Amino acid sequence: MFLQQIVNGITIGSTYALVAIGFNMIFGVLELTNFANSSLYMFGAYTTFLLYSATGITFFLSFAISIILTGLLGYCLDRFALRTLRKKHAPKLAGLITTLGMSMVIDNSIMVIFGTDSKAFENHLDFGKFYIGNAIVTWTQVIILVVACVLMSFLSVLVYRTKIGKAMGAIAQNADAAKLMGINTNKVISFTFIISGVLACIAGNMIAMNYRSIETNMGSLIGTKIFASAILGGVGSVPGAIVGGVLLGVIETMVSAYISSGYRDAISFTILIVVLLIMPNGIFGKKAINKV
Q: Staple 141 to which of 4, 11, 71, 156, CB 3.0 to 4.6 Å?
């Protein structure tokens, strides 16, 4: 029972981590809470479902097109909404409200097109199962975990070892100074939104295959998990998003198994609050320095 819940928790937690990484990257660069991130997660899954069921093209081609379209939607969110606010030096609250409004537009558009009933989603990663002790492990869970680990490793290298990653760090410290150093801040920020959308799409499709269904509240459900994972690990930190997401997934499954699924969210967030009381900046978060 214990080993089974660890396996389940790490699987679901790795998908939380993927979406939380995108959230943390945007926050790290712009100090912006992107409420639309969870909607991109749902948009990606529904786009794959629509392409596969309505056009007759193969699932994996539908998945690939969905990744491109979700990344493009993330780009459009920045290019046609947030970039205008930056040009006008609007307060950060305006950006937050804009992402919240875009989230509602995406969510309601999906409800209008698909209705509010859940839809069956085929699992094309169902290659059977095997046992580790008494724990049942499906190949779907293994593939989800491997894909998540590969993506998280790639993003860690991207952020901390590449030129564009250093540009992200420079913009996070001082956007005006980054411009003076020749960094095209708008391109770097748009790239960050594209990465965030791609990660959300991949996570949404993998979870849909794991549970074999999609529903119009899946975005709002993971929205709170994203924030919790990011805060637990440390807002703005890529390693923090990874650790926070996995920890939250394990805690949730343990609570569901040994206490009650009805108390899963309440107890998980209680633990989150306790951790933050001890470490206010999260596990990997850095204490902010206010310059005067």
A: 11
Count, residues in the chain? 292
Q: Which helix (H) or strand (E) holds 132?
A: strand 129-132
pTM for the whole thing? 0.90
Is the separation of the CB atoms in 73 and 40 below 8 Å? Answer: yes
CB atoms within 10 A of CB 122: 13
Residue with tokens 């389940």: 8
d(CA 39, CA 189): 19
> Is the pLDDT higher at 189 or at 29?
189
Distance CA 251, CA 271 (A): 9
Name residue 131's beta-bridge partners.
Answer: 136
Distance CA(271)–CA(288), nearest Å, equals: 23
Cβ distance 148 to 14 under 8 Å? yes
| Angle at 71 (CA atoms; ends 229, 90), nearest 5 degrees | 75
Query: Of 188, 254, 224, nearest to 19 (Cα)?
Result: 224
* Three-state DSSP state, 110: helix
Give the residue from 35, 1, 27, 3 showing the smallest Cα distance to 240.
Answer: 27
Per DSSP, what are the bridge partners of residue 213? Answer: 120
CB 11 within 8 A of CB 210: yes
**Residue for token digits 């046609």?**
80
Torsion angle of alpha carbons 189, 192, 196, 198, nearest 10°? 120
For residues 210 and 123, the answer to whether their CB atoms sit within 8 Å is: yes
